[in-house]
Amino acid sequence: MSDSSLWKKVGLGCGAMLVLLLVAAGGLALVTLRSVRNAEIVQAEVVPELPSIARTSEDDATGSPPPDTQSGEAAGAIVLRMGTGMLFVEPAAAGEALRVVASYDEGTYEFTERLEPGDPWTYRVELQLIGSAFLTGLKEAVGGSQPHVRVLLPRDVPLRLDLWLSGGSASVDLGGIALVSADLGFDSGVLGIEASEPLARLPDKVEVYGHRGALALRSMGRVSPAELEIGFVMGEARIDLRGDWKRDATITLDSKLSDVVLRLPRVARIEGLDTTRIELPATSEIQPPTLEFSVETGMRGKIRVFE
Q1: What is the count of structural domains for the chain?
Q2: Single pTM value for the model
Q3: What is the CATH number of the domain that holds 271?
Q4: H or E element: which one contains 26?
Q5: Enclosing H/E stretch for 76
Q6: Residue 174, C-beta contacts closer than 8 angstroms, at least 6 positions apart
Q7: How confident is the model at residue 280 (pLDDT cuts 50, 70, 90)?
Q8: Residue 297's domain spans which residues?
């Protein structure tokens, strides 16, 4: 067989393979478009009836909890688990109850919520992917809608917030709520945390952990936890501690493989952190709160400090 004949057969074979691939891709695209058109989007709204518990008052806006919740033991827990999609956590309007609003394709995702009575009680919300991750990605690429869950937290109920993302993104606004503690993190995804206004109760402890993705904390002075623990492994992390801190705090930072951008408040005593490269204003005659840092970095981790 001559070389020209051999190359001709190879060319014909490659051409046939290319045609088959184009036909398969076209068929997959057609199936995906039909799936998008036939998606059954569910709009769910839930207002769970929480147990009767002690509520905060306007006098607690400075951060002092009511007498029967000094230890936080009476606080209920809001547990949020997201495997995909977008999560929004924010304060409800004054006087409104806990409310959850969800939008999702019931053939692709499973949304569940349940109240577990007890002392303290627990309310769980979960959104998980039950369809093919590959086909779901294709559907969203050609115009399919992403699922989203919106959780509106009551302002006058002492709460513990527990959030974990195994995928997707979450935007959390802690402003205005009576927060006893928060444990927020992700395996992969994007997590943003802020306080758009002062809290009704200052939390005892806030823990934040990110494994792979993006993490952003903003205006943490408004949150003013007594303890703040932040751990981050890989991706991009920006931690903004600016704002009017209400009390002393211990802050632990642990960066394994990434640069962490840290912004410090202008009015605070900083201990345990090298601030020689930035210019912080001189403290006033009134004793400002003290932020005591403990910093750990892995082989490639770094904390970059800015004003």
Answers
A1: 2
A2: 0.80
A3: 2.160.20
A4: helix 3-37
A5: strand 76-82
A6: 91, 161, 182, 193, 194, 195, 199, 223
A7: low
A8: 43-306
